[in-house]
Amino acid sequence: MQSHRKFSDVYTGEAVYNLGVPRAQRNAVGTSTHRYQLTENGACYGRRISSKNGFVTEDAQGCD
Predict the structure, then answer these.
(1) pTM of the predicted model, to two decimals?
(2) What is the mean pLDDT for each group of 10 consecutive residues in the chain (64 residues)?
(3) b/e for 50-62, b at 16 or more Cβ within 10 A?
């Protein structure tokens, strides 16, 4: 029996801060999402973890 496997691993994110103001007022803001998915012989495992300003905002399992 031949095995068929597909794996996807994607990370996106960005960070910004106010320039031209004192360091205490720069207020860095960042967001990120890490999504991976493994499909093999009809079975699938996927997970998505998102964060904003260092705090997890989403932790979901499932496939598209």
Answers:
(1) 0.73
(2) 86 90 86 95 94 95 89
(3) bbeeeeeeeeeee
